[in-house]
Amino acid sequence: MKLKFIFRSFLLTCITFILALNCGKKSGGENFTELKGGIKGGGIFIANENENIRSLDPVGINDVVSHHVAHQIYDLLVDLDTNLQLKPMLAKSWEISPDGLIYTFHLRNDVYFQDNKCFPDGKGRKFLASDVEYSFKRVLDPRTGSLGFDFYRNYVKGAKEFNDEITKATNEKREPKFTSIEGYKALDDTTFQITLLKPFAPFINYMCLGFAYIVPKEAVEKYGKDFFQNPVGTGPFVFENWTPDLEINLKKNPNYWYKDEFGNNVPYLDGVKFRFIKDLSQQLLEFKNGTIYESYRIPNELFKTIVNDDRTLTPEYSNFVIQRKTSLSTQYYGFLVTSKVFSDVRIRQAFNYAIDRDKILKFVLQGSATEPAIYGMVPPVMPNYDSKKVKGYSFDLAKARQLMTETGYPDGKGFPEVTLNINEGGGRNTQIAEAIQDMLKEIGVTVKLQLLQFAQHLDNIDAGRSDFYRLGWNADYPDPETFLNLFYGKNVPANPKDVSPINSFRYKNPKYDELFEKAIATTDVSERNRLYEEAEQIAVNDAVCLFIYYDEDWRLVQNFVRGFALDPMHRVNMRFTWLDK
Amino acid sequence: MATFIIRKLLYSILILIGVITVTFCLMYVIPGDPARLMLGQRADIASIDAVRKQLGLDDPLYIQYGRFMLKAVQGDLGRSYSSNRDVLTTIIDTFPASALLAVSALIVSSILGILIGVISSVKPYTFADNLSMLMALFGISFPTFAFGLIMALVFGAWLKWFPISGYINNGMIYLVLPMLTLALRPLSIIARLTRSSMLDVLGHDYVRTARAKGVNEWKVIIRHALRNALNPVITTISAWLAALLGGTFFIEYIFNWPGIGLLAINSILSLDFPMIQGTVLFTAVIFILVNMIVDIIYAFLDPKVKLS
């Protein structure tokens, strides 16, 4: 009897406990207002990121996730639209001198920094060209802990000298002899000019990198080393708080300068919450529960339960919206072309012909990638560039066998066992490697798989200890140079014992280098692309790597989310996002 | 008493130096360059060298070690490579989340464990006893991370009773699943221990005498038996506190609970040396402190244990 009483009391306590906890849960009481053009204003957008952010100080933003958050707090001079075309932001317009050396930006004069206590009266002051000079100089100043000076140091006039002098002065514990950069000039309050050392056509894209966000000097000086967690910009959302590993909250900047085509003030949302759930399956569960509004990337093992063969959603997920976009990224296996096994181009070509990429896409990736990499390194989604003009490799087993015979390895006889290094993380890496292992057996090549932790994997590749390795390349900006730079011979150190982090294939071809150098110095887009194509064809003919597939991004969003497009570089812009609740 | 504490403190300092040295050496044996990871795949050699210099990674190992020790003594554990946050401040900010999870899990496991243990011992070899002990066996042998995933799936995804991940800043309900998952193993152990200890005590003469005197059965159980049976249980509970404070890594990862465990896992994945050192050092300090306090409490509780 007493036992029953205890049991009942326990059950009652549990139920009361659950109810009490649920009562304590914050309700999502959001207020929406009708705006012009059928848009609704208000609400908090709950985003999710699969990795932690590194910094909210532009000098430290070289990762995608930090960029996602920072893009809502700061503005750039020039931004990219969802088709990766340049569009004005803080710069109303810009021009590039015919010799490609001088970039002149005409800035808006109606932009104010967000209200913050770093300003004398707490009220954000007007944005000026001197802020651009200050922000850009910080990126080249090693004292700021900058991770971005390699982008600008070799191109902007006086940047290298400035960077070297500050480094030297810091080491010698003295004041720097000069603190200006010749190539950065604020001509007046609304004109900013950059002078390059030599023509470098992709440079305009560097204005869209995370390092190029504009910050006010007052905030950097007030918060010092902690500016990265007290960011102030001119962007549409104001930073509120950041709990590492958990969430970042932003609230609407009521004074944001942009008005939409209907005359509404932007942004429409009251705020944005970024959560940090790293596990994709857990992210999906939370998304299904409605506690986050987006679920980026679909776990490979769940792909078929979510997406039908015709790329629509299965009934279980039909309440949601699926977004997909070919991403500006290529997955490949690199060959160390200086290694004994892969020094013969015919072996590398044989590997490329032996791979049935369609099968990998259909059976391993189950349709989650766009298309097989049958062209070259630059994905077909690259704007203003016709990747399809580059002729790559299609599945041709007979040709692969013939090439192996020509090199003295008929049916692979006598060919040494090859170790393929792949990194941990993402089950599909292993699955693809196993498929390729089987395919290479067809030409008599035995492949041993070696799974390594990513840091060690990179270390081995850089040091030239991996003859055959998996890597992927995501574009930093929408110009073929970001991909083709990987094959540039001048990125290979003279001493073979030195690390070669960019051109890890250690590929050198003077003809390629000549065309590449010519291309990046050419301001005319069509001529530049022609030179890129020609150069890329050389690297593809030399089979520097085994091209596998061009990736595709998939994202599920709640059906009430509007104005939240997916772009090929997975940039996030919430200026025009609204909730149709 | 003072001698006991001083001796314990001296031992603790030695242990801490050992922990720091081993962690420090281990990290430099692990392949991978933090500067390379920070800069990403595009980085050129000059940038990698510059960042290595900024981080002080270009100095010989003994200089790095000496610098770290000197700063650590002054309470400066450096700044995180990956987030640039001050390591000690981050750990101090993060610790309440781990402490809340550990303490609440321990409270739940202690209350339920003792309750189940007492009920089992009062009705030994009945259905209720067998069922409780079977469940306790399951709790001890079932991997905690797997249990966590099942809890998230059943109560979070299917029944939608509790949120799967997050922190209490959005409501106390966020505590439930990680707390129950973490409580499973100590609960099972406490239940089994309470049962065996109670069965032992219930057979003693003074319990038989109390019953013979006609004392109410529940009074006999609570006042006479349980009080005496609790000594080993309290020791176990105290020992579990240290284990839970430092060992919630998987639970925090599964439920995205922003505590020391999650911080440590993320630091390891990004080769964030200062943060790894900081979390290891902090966990070691907690372990040592809690164990020292347990030793002192135990000595007070049980006169047979001498502090000297």
In short:
Chain A has 581 residues and is of the alpha+beta class. Chain A is built from 16 helices and 21 strands. The longest helix of chain A is centred in the N-terminal third of the chain and has 23 residues, at 2-24.
CATH superfamily of the domain at 327-554 in chain A: Dipeptide-binding Protein, Domain 3
CATH topology (level 3) name of the domain at 327-554 in chain A: Dipeptide-binding Protein, domain 3
Based on the structure given, which CATH architecture of the domain at 327-554 in chain A is correct?
Roll
**Helical coverage of chain A, percent range:** 25-40%
User: Which assembly state applies to the chains in this document?
Assistant: heterodimer
> Which pair has the most extensive contact?
A-B, 61 and 60 residues
Shape field of chain B: elongated
Q: What is the number of helices of chain A?
A: 16
Distance between the termini of chain A: 53 Å
Strand % of chain B is under 5%
- The total count of helices of chain B amounts to 13
Rounded to an integer, what's the Rg of chain B over CA atoms?
24 Å
Straight-line distance between termini of chain B: 7 Å
Give the CATH class of the domain at 327-554 in chain A: Alpha Beta
List low-confidence stretches of chain A. Answer: 23-27
Structural class of chain A: alpha+beta
Number of strands of chain A: 21
Order of helical and strand elements of chain B: HHHHHHHHHHHHH
How many individual β-strands of chain B?
Answer: 0
Overall 3D geometry of chain A? globular
